[in-house]
Each structure stands twice: as structure tokens, then as C-alpha cells.
Amino acid sequence: MGLLIRCPRDLDGHSVAAGRIVKDPGFVCGYLLPTMLLIDCFRRPSHELQARKKQSSKEMVQMRKLYRDPVKILLLGAGESGKTTIIKQMRILHIQNSYSFDERLEKLSDIYENIHESIYELVRQVVLLSLEFDSVSNQRCAEYILRMGHQAPWNLSAEYVQCVRRLWSDSGVKRCYKRSNEFQLIESAKYFLDRVEKISMPGYIPTNSDILNCRKTTTGIQEIRFNVRMPGPLGGGMQEFRMFDVGGQRHHRSKWMQAFEGVHAVLFLISCGGFDQTLREDPKQNRLAEGFELFRGVWHNRFLAETGVIVFMNKQDVLEQKLLAGKSIRTYFPDYDDYVAFADKEQLYDELTRTRSFIRSKLVDITNEPPRRTSHLVGRKRTCYFHFTVATDTQNVRTVFNDVHSIILTKNLSKMDLL
Ligand SMILES: Nc1nc2c(ncn2[C@@H]2O[C@H](COP(=O)(O)OP(=O)(O)OP(=O)(O)O)[C@@H](O)[C@H]2O)c(=O)[nH]1
Ligand SMILES: [Mg+2]
Question: Is-annotated flag, keyword Lipid metabolism (predicted)?
């Protein structure tokens, strides 16, 4: 342990506050180091001071070196948990001219695919769920969409847009949308179907919000590099970050190991809004339950045993909307009832707060499970950090990433025995 730092550390390490920043005390310590050194100097005899000065300049050199090396972050989580959305946010937040005019135009075809996939699936499910369209003309529109098959149109013709609009305001389609947890519908369906007319206008250029909401499955490993300004006391300048994104669906997870090497922190994403949905690749498995299982695998993975783990409990907006619509997590996780009794004692009476803390408690329980026998870290204390996030909300991600940055700095400093 370094001699200088006496700030209280975060005891349980769970710097959680409903998606808001909670300054990790360790972070504050890291930033105050030179000032504290100064204060410390007044209190010590001179020979001790000399030795201390030598030691601290060595520490400063080590610290500066640390910030010269890129920080490697790996994003893990099940399919559609929001990993690529976080990558897009990093680009928006940390890279100038994040998406060029041409890149934005290129996104149009993905957006058309999102629109078509959404309306096609909804119309198909209206039939499968034995629901009815409002009118014969809407029924004809549905047939027109179904005849197109899965292939999205190259451009949004007036006829196509009119059909999509009619269908999206059809009460049968609306009823079907309310039941979309019973089949596989992309998260961005409502976002793009609400905007189909605007998007079809000549000269339309996708906005950041369109890019963030646009869904495209990740198959390989993607890397993004960006620089973040370092605080003055640590020498200022910029620190390089490298963030790796992988495909989260089951058949893509075999590639994860390739990205483990030299990783400083894992950002694990779990979709809280998926509590009433099943996996796209396995309709028998609940999405949130899959997230828990996957987290267990990551937390206990021997190759990640030395890596910091930060959990983004994502899609808080979707969770909130579902609870407001009268859904409850107890339908899918009956042990929620046991938790409610505990939550009442903690005065967590609001359903959203209770549900969020229930999900977090399940993750915390996993971190408290005894390490597997193969783990060489038996008996060592590890800290996991949790954040409630909405990955499509740039302001929310900006705040949370500041916190993540400080956690990583603190962790690395303490690894180097500087804290
Ligand atoms: N409403 C809402 N949508 C989100 C949130 N996070 C991600 N999404 C949307 O969820 C969909 C899936 O997000 P992705 O980032 O592609 O998920 P992923 O984890 O990269 O998925 P894979 O590539 O299959 O592993 C996209 O349409 C995102 O816009 C969120 O917090 N709220
Ligand atoms: Mg992805």
C-alpha cells in the first residue's frame, strides 16, 4: 500500500446510483495525489521526506507510464444487450466528426432493414396470433409486405411507406406489438416505425439517434480506439483507450477468448428490459436468465480472474416502460416475491427501484459465490462495479463512462501498489 493515501475507499465497491455518477473515493484519491504529497511533506522529518520524495517521483514515473499504455476494455454480454451501442457512443463522445456524411448515408440501408424486419415480423405475427387487421385495405397492405419476404426494399417508395404507416396505426398490429415479448422483434421497431415517413424523405441523413437505435448483429470482433483527456495532476495529455466489441449470440461466443489477452477491464452488459423475453437463438431460454448465466461464466472465468469487471445493467428505459405497462418480473422470476419482503424492509416501495435492486442482487449473489475449484484466485477479494444504464442515451453514457474511467484508473493504480 502507498503511504500517502488515507482517503476512505469504497467498501463494497458497488458504485451504483441509478445510472448517475457516484464518485469513487479511490478516484478522488488518485487525482489528489500530488496535493496530498505536499500536505504530507509538512508533517515529516527531513530524511524521511527525502526518501519519500524519491519514492513518490518513482511512483509518478510509473503512473505516467501507465497512462502512456492504452487501456484495453472488452465488452461482453448476450445478444442485443447493447454492446455495439456503447461502441457507437464512444465514437460519438470521443471521436471528432464521429460519423462522416458518407458513413451516415451508408447507414440508410441498415435503417431500411430495421424498418422492414419490424413491420414484416409484426404483420406475420398478427396472423400467427390470430389477431385481425382493422380493414380489408390494411389486410391488403399486410399481404403486400408479406409478399416482399425478408428482403428490405432498396428505397422507401411512396406505396411502401403508406402501407407501413397504415399498418403501424392498425389496432390489430398495436395489440400484436404489445405482445412482442412472445416473439422476436428488434428493440428499435417502434423508434423506426414512428419515423418511417421522415426517413423516406429525399435527402434524409441519419442522425446520431438513428445510428444508436439501428440494430445490426455483430459477428466478428470489432475494435475502436479513442483518446480521453487525462487530469493535469497526472501529467495531463491524452490517454488511449481500445474497446473491443464481440458478437453476443451463443454461436458467436466461441470467439470471445481471442479478445481476452491483456484486457484491463470487462464491461459486461445485461439487458434488464429483457426480463419477459426469450433468446432469439433459443426461444426456450429467458433473456435475463441467460444474462445471469453468462455473467456467472465471465466472473468465474480463470482467464479474466485478474481483470476488473464493471456491469452495465442496461435498457433501464425499456424496463421502466414494461413495468408502467403493468408487467412484473415475478411472472418470470418467482423468487422476486422473497425479495419484495426484504425490499420492503429497506423501504424500497417503488416497483421500478425494487425490480432494479432485485436484478442487481442476483448479480451480486453471483459475485459472492465461491470461486470454482479451478480458479487460482480462491480466497482473494474481487470487486465488481454496477451501473444502471440506457445505452442509447448519450448523456447517460457520458456520465457512466467518466465513472468507468475513474474505476479503471483506481484499479490500475492499486494494482501497481500506488493506492
Ligand atoms: N431502448 C433502448 N434500446 C437499447 C438500449 N441499448 C441498446 N439498445 C438497442 O438494442 C438493440 C441491440 O443493441 P446492440 O448494441 O446491437 O446489442 P449487442 O449487444 O451489440 O448485440 P450483438 O451484436 O448481437 O451481440 C439496438 O437496436 C440498440 O439501439 C437501451 O438502453 N435502451
Ligand atoms: Mg453488437
Answer: no
User: Is 80 exceeded by the pLDDT of residue 200?
Assistant: yes
- Give the pLDDT of residue 161: 98
Tally of structural domains, the chain: 2
3-state secondary structure of 75: strand
> Residue 294 pLDDT > 70, yes or no?
yes
Closest by CA to 393, choosing from 208, 187, 190, is: 208
Residue 208 lies in a domain: yes
Question: What's the pLDDT at 400?
Answer: 95
Number of alpha carbons in the 13 Å side-chain half-sphere of residue 33 = 24
Annotated binding site for GTP: 80-85, 212-218, 245-249, 314-317, 391
Mean pLDDT (whole number) for 200-205: 97
Within 10 A of 216 (CB to CB), how many other CB atoms are there? 12
Cβ of 81 closer than 6 Å to ligand 1, yes or no, is yes
Percent of the chain with pLDDT strictly greater than 90: 68
Residues with a known catalytic role: 80, 85, 215, 245, 249
Do 258 and 341 lie in a common domain?
Answer: yes
Q: What domain range is 122 assigned to?
A: 101-213
**DSSP class of residue 10?**
P
Question: Any idea what the CATH number is for the domain that residue 400 is in?
Answer: 3.40.50.300
Q: Are residues 167 and 262 in the same domain?
A: no
Domain stop point among 213, 233, 260: 213
Closest CA to 310 of 91, 93, 80, 86: 86
Same domain, 206 and 296: no
Residue 233 sits in the same domain as residue 161: no
**Sequence-separated (6 or more) residues with CB below 8 Å from residue 66:** 412, 413, 416
